[in-house]
Known about the structure:
The radius of gyration is 19 Å and the shape is globular.
Amino acid sequence: xxxxxxxxxxxxxxxxxxxxxxxxxxxxxxxxxxxxxxxxxxxxxxxxxxxxxxxxxxxxxxxxxxxxxxxxxxxxxxxxxxxxxxxxxxxxxxxxxxxxxxxxxxxxxxxxxxxxxxxxxxxxxxxxxxxxxxxxxxxxxxxxxxxxxxxxxxxxxxxxxxxxxxxxxxxxxxxxxxxxxxxxxxxxxxxxxxxxxxxxxxxxxxxxxxxxxxxxxxxxxxxxxxxxxxxxxx
Length: 234
């Protein structure tokens, strides 16, 4: 693999971090600051505790805003949850852009590596950033524990991307069945989400050999996922 690290280039960083809309001043009005603080507070609490363990009152306390202001800006808790995903749509679009570049030549010897990097690296980059770490955890937590009240939202934002990556991998091996590739995709998602949610577990199991935040773990994750796909794809 040519470069499995998650050193962010300027384009990736800009796409993965929320920005003030074009034409707007970066010096935000107090009302906009409050609206953003609500979104960030909700994102953090959902990530740390899960959707059902968090109340609107908890979010108001974390954001240090009046309780009624959350309803004024976002409506119900489910609508606020949906707004978080909408605010990160740019990161999903960026992953699809990277995928299109990676699959330009599906017969290339490193096509699988490039597709996996396009899938995994933006998530690792997001998780490593102060702005994106909580959304990465929130998405990982909820996608690994699906719930009927959030299935449609997750399907809206993640299913098109999942199908695009499965299509890309299928193009590298027309002999493989879509079912095989779909299972491999699910296994890859599971490995990635466990990596995001594992915390100090690897350090404990390695008896201290693996420090928390070990950068080598990111390369191992990519190699592990690529090897899994290669064992199935011809």
